[in-house]
Amino acid sequence: MIEKTPTTRFQAISSDTNGTLAPKGVTALWSRFNHVYGHRWETGYGPALNDQGELTDAAKTWGRALAGFGPDELARGLRGCVERGDGWPPTLPEFIALCRPPPTRLAPYHALAPKALPVPESVKEARRVAGCAALAQMKTILKIQPKRVECHN
User: Fold this and answer.
1) 3-state class (DSSP) for residue 19
2) Are 62 and 23 in contact (CB under 8 A)?
3) What is the number of domains present in the chain?
4) Fewer Cβ neighbours under 10 Å: the N or C end of the chain?
């Protein structure tokens, strides 16, 4: 059974002088992905460390991209992976989006606008008359005979 809340705390996550996630943080993340996705993670991205004990190119890429992410953000990303429930490991851009979801959109500006003042009946009547005149003009141009009287004077 997969646990919902990752227990790995990325203690060594401070960025090193190269502006990447510290190697211990990358290997902890890699380990957690291996626990969640099993062989699918290793097949897709390989191990975190090469034979010399150094980060692989894929792990370095993830480390550079995740520089500056805090432990809570990485944990949010891991929870998001589990909650997706599709069983496939994320790509790097997908994981970043799970760590830092886009801000919630605000309501459209017009939804915040105050209600308009009531329109006087005289203005409504003037608009109706102007509309009827414009409709009659269009019908004349298009040579359309009205079947019924649509506008009353």
Assistant:
1) coil
2) no
3) 2
4) N
In the block, which residue shows the tokens 């009659």?
136
75 lies in the same domain as 43: yes
Q: Evaluate if residue 151 carries a pLDDT over 80.
A: no
CA-angle at 39, arms to 36 and 40, nearest 5°: 75
DSSP three-state, residue 96: helix
pLDDT for 149 equals 54
User: 40 and 91 in one domain?
Assistant: yes
Q: Is residue 88 domain-shared with residue 45, that is, in the same domain?
A: yes
Q: Is residue 10 part of a domain?
A: no
DSSP string, 44-72: HH--SB-TTSPBPHHHHHHHHHTTT--HH
For residues 123 and 89, state if they share a domain.
Answer: no
